Amino acid sequence: MVTQAGDLRSEIAADAQHVVRGVGAAPAPYVHVYSVDTERVPELTVRQAIATAYPAVDVLAASGEDGVPRTT
Asked: Is 4 exposed, middle or buried (0-12, 13-18, 19+ CB in 10 A)?
């Protein structure tokens, strides 16, 4: 049986075992990750500067999703 992604998401969100695990709690089932290619930018201080300058809050707001920008 072939289902559409929205149908499957609704089905999972309605299932009690998944709700308990928090699957249906997030606004979107995706994690957006932006990373710097360490081969193209090998110097740590440059990668740190890029991460510091990246407008994570603005990108998150523009996506229309709720969440917290994280850096590691």
From this structure: exposed
